[in-house]
Design a protein that fits this description.
81% helix; Ferritin; 178 residues; 6 helices; elongated
């Protein structure tokens, strides 16, 4: 047994750590479901074809994240339930404000949508990284693997959004007159 790692799941079954883990799974499960509803709106509002495609591709990926989270719940013997995520709720609302507060067809809107999307990605990266570590600590091998897979995909999406912003959107937005 590794130091600092507990592989006896019977010990963790009713622990405070597992309680926290489940609560955080419910939180990110709600967040991913919210993104499934929000990403189509972001894709529709985007001007850049690259950005539209990135949002549409991430929508499909996010649907897989929802399914993967359901597998995580099953793997630890819990029922998949949501718990409202105030952080993602606020990030989604901020994205809607960006759409409402920018001109349709503008690079400014795309730049704002990228920022909103990266806020969501960074929240997810932090959450999945923490959950994967907790799963490892509690010896939930399958959960750790599933969470780690999603973490890698979220990190890739964040990098893609940066590349899209740097490919000309930010520059175009800087040239738009007020």
């Amino acid at each position: 047994m590794k130091t600092g790692t507990m592989n006896d799941q019977s010990t963790t079954a009713h622990s405070k750590l597992k309680e926290l883990f489940v609560e955080q799974l419910q939180d990110i499960y709600w967040a991913e479901k919210k993104l499934v509803k929000t990403l189509p709106k972001m894709a529709e509002a985007a001007t850049s074809d690259k950005l539209k495609q990135a949002f549409n591709n991430h929508l499909e990926q996010t649907k897989n994240h929802v399914s993967r989270l359901e597998q995580v719940f099953i793997s630890i013997g819990e029922t998949a339930k949501t718990r409202k995520c105030p952080a993602m709720s606020g990030i989604a609302e901020e994205g809607e404000d960006i759409i409402d507060g920018t001109d349709e067809g503008s690079a400014q809107r795309d730049a704002g949508l990228i920022i909103a999307a990266q806020k969501a990605e960074h929240y997810e990266i932090a959450t999945y990284g923490g959950l994967a570590q907790l799963a490892e600590t509690m010896g939930f091998t399958e959960a750790k693997s599933l969470l780690g897979q999603t973490l890698q995909e979220e990190e890739q999406t964040d990098k893609l959004l940066s590349q899209i912003a740097e490919s000309g959107i930010n520059y175009k937005a800087s040239q738009e007159k007020v």
